[in-house]
Write a structure and sequence with these properties.
Layout (H helix, E strand, L loop, with lengths): L4 H14 L3 H8 L15 H5 L4 H23 L4 H13 L12 H11 L1 H18 L2 H19 L5 H14 L1 H9 L24
Amino acid sequence: MIFNLTNGLLLIFAYLMGSIPFGLLLTRAAGLGDIRSIGSGNIGATNVLRTGKKSIAFLTLLFDLLKGWCAVFIGQKYGIELWAAVLAVMGHMFPVWLKFRGGKGVATYAGALFGLSFPLGMQALLGWIAFLIIFGYSSLSALLVTILVPLSVWLWHYEGLLGTTIFLSALIWVKHYENIQRLLKGEEPKVGKRGTKPEQNTGTSSNRS
């Protein structure tokens, strides 16, 4: 990528777009309070679903997907789509508005994949759904998909995407550290389990999804 002012501004825009905490904004607008005080304390669609409001959870998922897709779509016009994908996901994970304590980036990553390659995005989405049906854990489904995505890129020769998908998949594994610990202990809640307070809220960025 040739750096210039336009590209720099677009990458800042990609980060800011990714940093919009739709889960937090939508739950507050719906009168549900601060989503960070509910369930796992995460700001993603899985935790929003624990409020019992499926429509709000769906909108959270949709908007988080669109953040990644829009960043890539705009970046493609200037040949910086890979960087835009990375910045959008990192914006969701480390939003300046929430003191860099954001989500785990799974939906935004998926949206970016759809922008980079629709077939790859569909593979990721269908894989996540399949794993969710089998195991019932959103976090485990996401972790398994982030292994399959770089593997698919390598096997099917998606040009230029291997480094980006490995990097973003690794970031998601790091952000899921506490989920991995709970999965190993058998304490991870399944999708749809309702909660009224954070299950384990240490105040660190790894708690948000």
